[in-house]
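Researcher: First entry.
Model:
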Amino acid sequence: MTAGSEPVLELLPMVFADPGEARARAELVLAAAPAPLPASIAHQVLGIWQRDFGDLRIALRHLRRARDLAARADSADREADVLATLGVALVHAGRTRQGLASFERGVARGTGHTRARVLYRRAYVWWVLGHHREALEDVRRALPVLRQLGDDIWTARALTLRATVHLALGAVERADADFTAAERLWDTTGQEHDKADAVESRGLAAFRSGDVPAALRLLDEAEERYAKLGTPTYMLSIRRCEVLMAAGLAPEALAEADAAIALLDRIGGQSTRKAELLLAAARAARSAGDAPTAIARAAVAVRLFAAQRRLWWETHARLVLIEARVAAGRRSGRLVADAAAVAERLASFGSPAAPEASLLAGRIALALGWTADAERHLAVAARGRHAGPAPARVTGWAAQALRARAAGSRRGVLEACRRGLDVLDDHRMTLGASELRAHVTAQGAELAALAQEVSLTHGGPRRLLEWSERWRATVLSAPPTRPPADPALLSGLTAYREIAARAEEARMEGRPVPALEREQRRLEREIRSRTRHIRGSVPHEGNRFDVPRLLDRLGDGRLVELAVVDGRVHVLLCGQGRVRRFAAGPLAEAVTEAEYVQAGLRRLAHPGAEARLPLVEAAGERLQELLLGGAVPHLGAGPVVIVPPGALHRVPWALLPALRDRVLSVSPSAGSWLRARETEPPRGGRTVLVRGPGLATGGAEVPELADRYGTATVLEGADAQVPRVLGELDGAGLAHLAAHGTFRADSPLFSALRMADGPLIVHDFERLDRSPYRIILSSCDTARLASVGADELLGLVTALLPLGTAGVVASSAPVNDAAVIPLMLALHKGLTAGLSLAEALRDARTTLPSDTVHQATGWAFAAFGAA
């Protein structure tokens, strides 16, 4: 049976090896006006292509034509094969009853080998519909026949499908065994699309086993394979959304799901895939705190799943819909009943999401004061705290903590919170990328808040301090895993620098080039993806924060940690051998005031804004009342360390009247201040001075500093290129970088300092074996940070602290370039006299001219850490 010189039967396996080539050859077959049997095969190939990669309506027309031609050819097996393909397409189109009827006819018509293939495809459809037991039964019937006949391709498909069903039921070990066996078979074939699918499935298995970096790496590899074949990746998008959400990257997951939905709508693709993508989008929106979007997406998903007769999927979508409604502020007995019904149905399916639904029912019941109902539901949810993947165990411990709180057991709440956060700590340290470590902490926010709430009402200030520290700035507790010497990552960073430099030059010349900006964004995605593949290498060592050690190290100084409980700021004043608590103001008011102050400092950086100075100073007084409250008279005369929550990281603390003339430093946590305090400077640490391009003053302080230090290494002009700068910074004792700083709120790890060959980004700093002991960043916005996760901060300063830097001076606001020079020179004068960064900065402010611009410049800079 041929069309020209090509055997037509070869087209069917080719559609999953090289889909585009198979489509082209099938069209050539039909152009030759073939007999019914080869025409049936060609139409089936085109139908498969359109079903999986194109317009489902066109697919159904081809497949019905293929079925009719098979009947005319009087080939029962050919007709059975087409009926199975048609059945899959009908189910994906949402015509479930017609699809299952097509399978019934296919099973009846087929024999032997063909019947086994029909059973495999019906098993696939059962999986799509959420009928997992039926799927496993059809695979059980098909596999022995496929193996006996030596059909490696279909045997591998059946094993892959069975593994996927096992994953849906939470049987990860069984899934791993099947995936491994399937992969061995795929290696013997040329089925490139199936091989890509196998890599994608391994990514899902890695995720289910708790290995997020491996999951992201495998899904990215699968995407590259699909891209070479030119095939869309809807299922891959669904799976990546799940992994991104587990990594705390819900906004990114939502964007991916919405983009895939838009593409699917544009080409008229599978209704089943659209419903699954809507569910993924709803989950992502809920995780991102966007309740209205979550409600809208979940409601449409519920309707589509119901119309498609996919009860398993519909129930999962109902869970997200109820969660989103509760997040929007709804509470009612009806919602308790709905959540309980969803939990019961999910449990009957064997779904790992059942405890999540029970926890939801318990939460709503607690909010309504229905303690007996809450206990019943929470007890069910708490059963999962000892087994399963980390997020599921955290859910179980959250349920246990809520049970203990309802029962009035303070000890029970704290124990459940400790155990749950320990689980999340272990999971966090499997992640190598600081970005992922920061974002994933959001999963522990409720446990940390419960523990702080109980500590506030039933414990002393010391207990509240311990729990405030327990889940604050945890990313800084250990350095990120150093990126491997990955040639692709290194070349990507080099290419990114070049493109970013060209794009910036074009913007400065008033001729932005969209192509350069698109390439810059593409390279950012590639770098971000590769860094996320890094697996953690530092084991979790438990909570090592030691209050007595902190009090001992403070000497005659004070550490002020601002804890936020139920929206209010509480001042924990550490010093003189004890911890005291003082009430302060609402966090929301303090954040609003801080934003007003930041706007004022931006205006004061330019001459002619003197009239705004009293307003800014008055705002500083209000901030002091909101943030320090009654603690002010107890600050003593010694140095003060401020430990603010993430939401207040941009407060210019030196503006507050009680802190204005003090030796003042800022730290993301008390634990990170302790680590900085105990960090030893490198022996014979050299001084490095860097002057980047394009500064309004030309970095005028650098030549004077070079004269002051004498033996300092000076990098400027062509020497100030990123590779050379990094080489000199590694292990230095003191580094001064005069370079334009840019903060990226959308992607804080691409915040940068401008060097001669392009941006020096946070990802570059993370490649250092040891960052400089002290760093001074003399440009604007270098201290700006992004608050993510539970209470984590990402940006230049926080990237340096875990890498060996004990102290940083940087600015949290735009500053006047000319006014920076005298401040920097005075700062270094203090350092050469043996002062710490905080002492030198305090003294440097006092030497500045009394005009508004210089005052604002002094307030904008802060000392971070303890060096």
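Researcher: Second entry.
Model:
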Amino acid sequence: MNFDVDQYLIEEATGEVQSLIDYKMIHQVCDNFHIDERENKIIFKTGDYLFGDYIVKNLKEAEYIILAIITLGDRIDKRVNDYFSESNYTKGMILDVIAGVFLEILTNNFWEEVRENAQKYGKEVTDIFYPGNKWDIKNQAVICKLVDSSKIGVNINHSFIITPQKTVSFVCGVGENVKRPVKESVCDDCEAKDCIYRNVPGESKYKVTVRFSSNTKVIEASEGENLFHILVRNGIRLNNFCGGSRICGQCKVILNEELDISDDEKYFLTDKEIKNNVRLACFVEIDRDLEVKVLSEEQKAKILTKENNLLSIESHPRIKTSTVDIRRPTLNDQGDYVKRIKEAVSGEIEIPLGLLSNLPEVLEENDYKVNITIRKNEIISIKKAASKQYNYGIALDIGTTTIAAYLYDLDEGKEVDVYSCLNPQRTFGADVITRITYSISNSQGLYQLHSALINKINEIVEEFCVKNSIDKSDIHEIVAVGNPTMIHFLLNVSSKNIAVSPYVPTFTSKIEVKAKEIGININKEGYVITLPLISSYVGADTVAAVLANKIDQSQELCLLVDIGTNGEMVLGNKDNLIASSAAAGPAFEGAGITFGLNGAEGAIDHVDFSKRPFYSTIGNKKAKGICGSGIVDIISELLKYGIVDITGRFLSKEEVKNVPVDIAERITLYKDEPAFLIENGIYVTQKDIRQIQLAKSAILAGINIMIKEMGIDVNEIKKVFLAGGFGNYILPASAIAIGLLPKELQGKILQVGNSAGVGAIMALLSDKELERAIHLQSKISYIELSTHEDFQNEFVKGMYF
């Protein structure tokens, strides 16, 4: 089933609020009062008075004053408190917010009724004024007294706070000369333009019918809304690299009718596509009812999860589960239950409040024999004793493009299952800068990016549990690695300053939090650990890769290169380690390439002009585009055969020599620029060559500067670890041929697979390895390439092939 989890929770909570509402309203119309402007009082015939210059100023022209109280009753308060006591904070907060919206709607409806009645008699109505909002909350006691709030079960305490919580008191004035306010809908400031509860008078609404993955969804949209953002907001995952910035040309849809098209959009589409009403969602602004078929949904990618180096560590687990007998209480032995637990486990142990709440019942129900799980010095689980003690953990590698998760039995140190998927945040952009920009430019952007990731992690947890017949409560810890931006998004922490000079992250230390604090559904007292970061662009994944390849323990000089949507590099050995990052962009993962794809089935992954056919595809499927390893291979071949020169310029057919005829015939134009036809309308263009030149020169410049900073010769490097998916599938010879790596490193390259995942597993299984990772943060020094005096020169030199 495909649906947007956040929208589902909102709709579920809305229905629940409606079932819990016990709506009551009481009001009093007062016409016998006088205003003392000197004392700033509105005095009623009972002698009671409202006070404050704000309320006097706004009601001094009123002929009638209406005092009112509206309540939703106490059942909502109780349900919200229940959710919080169960640690279900997300649902509790959603329920609380939606109840508040209902209360505001009911208040506005009451005001509208008053206004309609007043207008029948030629009167107007002031705005609504709430005690505590610009005037003293003590006035709330006067309103409660004059309307007799106890009749509807509303009470007020000595601090002038009324209960139930979802209750409001207010006043408004009626008269011929009062100033009528411009009442705005409570929906005016909400970004959820397609919300089914939205009500903005005068706003044009249109119906967008979307067909995707054999599903159909009808969305209400406002005039001028962007189709791309409508689809994303409603959980329809489009293949794209730019987050709707109109630069990748991937978010293709078919419309039911012809719309105007700009030259900018035409660049990304063929004449045949335009004729068939294929459009890019990011260019379509809603101005009518539309039927839309999504063409470019995200493809299932081939994701690297296996490591190429042997994982062998000595286990030093933080978490242990054992069966214990608890001494029973008697009249002669009335010691508390916590003392009995501590006595049974022989130590000064902390017990969280969540386990104390029903501790006696758990012990009694299980005849005082239980399984106790201890993490460091904290008990995180007390449950029925079983013949098999279950103790699981998950290592999580959160890449910008992909996610890899590893389920481990912590007692035995054995892998149980592996899961991989595309990072759902790709919908908001292919690279971290695009996503950071989205988080800044949208009021709910950070939460959207965070929740997309958390929802996917919870799906992974659910998959592991169902597939392996285990309970979520038996998953006690997650160790997560990723680049700094991904770790910030995971923890719902702002990353905006990572993208702007001087590029400062909010934190770099190891973070250890209860999983429930960030919405991850494992054991309620379980933890999430993120490994430390080095800088804004060298993160926990790089620390994990150094850990996995044991560079910090090596006598020999080693170079680690992990090229993804960013390039991270570490050079050194046990004596000295330096790191840098290069803004390679996502070109090596297919993004920004005219016919680029991620590592999905049908992506051209290798090219060799000496063979026929001269290319292969992932899954041996019909060619659909080119992935990162494929684009490096084909440029290597174009250079080898003299079709592209060392400056990156395409040569014409007339200029090339000694090239097989069937290869030379493929030299052509695409959209009026030089290109090479591969197959099925798939081209490598001059623009693509330039994109790779920019990316590879940044990486090469970084490597050369690190070599200079360390004061060594390139030949002194004995091992080069190519990490990550791109590093695993690229041909080292092709990387050398295009100048991605120095030619002196030929023969020293080891493709080490998902080293970041291996490092996360090591930190999960061994507390000593976690401590080693923490120590690495202080051991690795960072070079900021963008401000280095040699960077421009090295970058320009690196542009040549």
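Model: Note on the second entry: The chain has 23 helices and 35 strands.
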